[in-house]
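protien #1 (seq + structre)
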Amino acid sequence: MTETHTIIVTDAGFAQNDASQTNMIDLASDTPPSDLNALLDAPFIRIDFPSFADGRGFGLARRLRELGYSGRLRAKGHVIADQYAMARRSGFDEVEINAELAARQPEAQWRARADWASHDYQSRLRGVR
C-alpha cells in the first residue's frame, strides 16, 4: 500500500512532507488521555483527525502540552484551513493534509490564518489586535 502525497502546513505556508518520520508515533483520535503520560519522551507525535467535525485531537494535543510534552506535534488528516488557528492554539506545530485538500484550500487560505495567536474570538471581542 502506497502512502498518498501529503503537504505540511506551518505558519510559513505549505511545505513538502519530510521523510524524517522514523521516530514518529501515530495516535488515533480516540486514544484515552490516560495513555498520554507514556508518550512524553517521544520526539514526534502525529494525531489523526478522521473527520473535520471530530475535534478530539485538539483535546489530546492540549493535554500533551499540559503534561509537559515538548516534542514535535502534528495534526494529520481532515483539518481544514478554518481550524488551523485552533490547531496551533491547542499545541500542534503543524498540520498534514492530503494534496486534494491542498488544492481545494490553497496555501493563501492557510496563510491567512497563520497569525493564529491574534485570531481568536476573545481578542476580537476585546478589540485587541
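ok now protien #2
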Amino acid sequence: MKIEIITPDKKVYSGKVKSVQVPGTDGSFQVLKNHAPLISTLGKGKIKVVEEDNNELFFDVEQGVIEVKNNKLILLAEKI
C-alpha cells in the first residue's frame, strides 16, 4: 500500500507501508491493505506509519484529511 503525507509547504513522507494509524475526529482508526475506500477528517494527535520492514514512524498532526482508495493513501495535513 502506498502513502503520501503532504502539507501546504512540502511532501513530508512518501513510501510503501503495511499500516497507518491516524487520529480521526471521531476516534483513532487504522488502515490496512485492501481497506474500503474512505475519506475522513483528522484531529490533533499522532500518525503511526508501519513500513514494510516493520520500521515504525510517528508524525504529530494538528488537523487534516485522509483519503484511501485502491491501496493508496493521501494524507493532507495543515501542519506536521
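The mean pLDDT is 96.
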